[in-house]
Amino acid sequence: MEFRYLGNSDTKVSAVGLGTWQFSESWGVTDYRTAKSIVGRAVELGINLFDTAAVYGRGMSERFLGEALRELGIREEVVIATKIPGEFLSRHDVFKATRRCLERLGTGYIDLMQVHWPPCWDNFPTCEYMRSLEELVHLGAIRMIGLSDFPPELIESAWSCLSTEDLVSVQVKYNLVERDAEKEIIPYAEANGLSVLAWSPLAKGALTGKYTPENLPSFSDVREGSALFHPENFPKVYELVKVLKEVGAKYGKSPSQVALNWLLMASDRVIVIPGAKSPSQVEENVGAADWRMSLEDWMRLEEESGKVRITRVIW
């Protein structure tokens, strides 16, 4: 496994982490034994970054992850990243939400606490919640601060509120067919020493090669109604999947491994956090690291992905 520094900190994390939204009704992993087997296999293969959130399964993901790490006896060997949502950003709720995250995770500290999204529907002042997070660093409850789904203007505003601590990361949706983060957010992160945690790096499974336009499952999870799988979009996505298969055949890699590797090559600030619903999916995700496709193949995927335009106006 290759490792990358988290922001400008001295903390190294695996270039391929594990996203644990799957441990919820949204994705269907609601059996703790399955979740533990996924976490255990991830650790065996060198993953040390685990990303969760308070809202995933209304705490189920944090509980499963924390219990698995305790039973495996490896809490001190890993980096736990969690998030509190935009609705929980008043000063008293930041402290309350963090305490509950700590309780669910069964840990004395959180390595990376992220603001899951800005308080879009509330009027919490930015400096109120950022200074509260900074106080939690001083108190030892969290070690580092990050943001998720913030545009550069709001990253800049949030960062300016901190007096003694720095931001280390920004989490964004980023994959070969959803590349809008490249326009502003990733250049901002690179210029300012922030890590980019890429969520949905396989486009909710659309880039895995598992599906075809003629063989789309009747989703009963979070993908139901997803624009990516709409008949207006998925045939275009599948044309890119065909290229991923061709490139992968040259290296003995699957489409998903090629798609993840492309992101890792795009910027040394990028860290991918794909989810997994089984240990075998963890094994496949890990196969995206420790190799590089040729520049020619990388450029071919750059060109082909640029032809894919996803419309979300599907009704």
Notable traits:
single chain, 315 residues, alpha/beta, TIM Barrel, 8-stranded parallel beta sheet, two-stranded antiparallel sheet, 10 helices, 38% helix
- Which spans of ≥5 residues are poorly predicted at pLDDT below 50? none
Under CATH, the topology is which?
A: TIM Barrel
CATH class membership: Alpha Beta
Strand portion, in percent?
Answer: 5-15%
Helix content: 25-40%
Anisotropy-based shape:
globular
Main sheet strand line-up = 3-4-5-6-7-8-9-10
Question: Which structural class do you get from the secondary structure elements?
Answer: alpha/beta
Largest sheet: 8 strands, parallel
What is the residue-averaged pLDDT? 95
Instruction: Encode the helix/strand succession as letters.
Output: EEEHEHEHEHEHEHEHHEHH
Overall tally of structural domains: 1
CATH superfamily: NADP-dependent oxidoreductase domain
Report the radius of gyration as a whole number of Å: 19 Å
Count of individual beta strands: 10
Between the first and last Cα atoms, what is the distance in angstroms?
A: 43 Å
At CATH's second level, what is the architecture? Alpha-Beta Barrel
Count of helix runs: 10
